[in-house]
From TrEMBL:
Domain of life: Eukaryota
Organism per entry: Carposina sasakii (Peach fruit moth)
Descriptive protein name: Elongation factor 1 beta
PROSITE patterns from the UniProt entry: EF1BD_1, EF1BD_2
GO cellular component: cytosol; eukaryotic translation elongation factor 1 complex
Keywords from the named record: Elongation factor, Protein biosynthesis
Sequence ranges assigned to domain Elongation factor 1 beta central acidic region eukaryote in this UniProt record: 99-126
Length: 221
């Protein structure tokens, strides 16, 4: 199948149909035919041209040096109604021509090796990216039984609670009336490690000091 100007909508449609059952423009490996059509297309086809877009992105993943090393291939582009052949590489010396194409195979293998190394390096870099740790900032209201409760001792007991992923912060006493103050204390927790319900239960275990515990504020960090 030959198609015309791939800069036109019709030419791109023809290219998309042509690539529906093909990975490359000519043969089973990328060639100069792919380079010729790729340069004619100039930019990624629209999303509705799925086969042409897939082929374009694949060819674009190679470097210009890698594409230059590809062997010649028959191009389906037309000039004056006739298919044109992709330009063959010019050799300086006929004696150096490999009639069996072993040089092309070596170049294809080298291009594949370089691409594999790039993919491996990208995967290793991505795997080393630190995982995001979900944290929350919590403001707790710890209420005593009465105005005779030693609030300094109450806070001291609260801060003795140690859990992996728990960090205590600032605190203050807030009047609630009749001479009674509640302890407002800030903490930061790692969501996967600390249960808020378990934390409040541990605080309420100091029943000689603590009447109740409420969550005054809860914010994701």
């Amino acid at each position: 199948m030959a198609f015309g100007d791939v800069k036109t909508a019709q030419g791109l449609n023809d290219l998309n149909k042509y690539l529906a059952e093909r990975s490359y423009v000519s043969g089973w490996v990328p060639s100069q035919a792919d380079v010729q059509v790729y340069e004619q297309v100039g930019k990624a086809p629209a999303g509705n041209l799925a086969h042409a877009l897939r082929w374009y992105n694949h060819i674009a993943s190679y470097t210009p040096a890698e594409r230059k090393a590809w062997a010649a291939g028959a191009s389906p582009l037309t000039a004056g109604g006739k298919p044109t052949a992709a330009p063959a590489k010019v050799e300086d010396d006929d004696d150096d021509v490999d009639l069996f194409g072993s040089g092309d195979e070596e170049e294809d293998a080298e291009a594949a090796r370089v691409r594999e190394e790039r993919l491996k390096a990208y995967s290793e870099k991505k795997s080393k990216k630190p995982a995001l740790i979900a944290k929350s900032s919590i403001l707790l209201d710890v209420k005593p039984w009465d105005d005779e409760t030693d609030m300094k001792e109450l806070e001291k007991h609260v801060r003795t609670i140690e859990m992996d992923g728990l960090l205590w912060g600032a605190s203050k006493l807030v009047p609630v009336g009749y001479g009674i103050h509640k302890l407002q204390i800030m903490c930061v927790i790692e969501d996967d490690k600390v249960s808020v319900d378990l934390l409040t239960e541990k605080i309420q275990e100091f029943e000689d000091f603590v009447q109740s515990v409420d969550i005054a504020a809860f914010n994701k960090i």
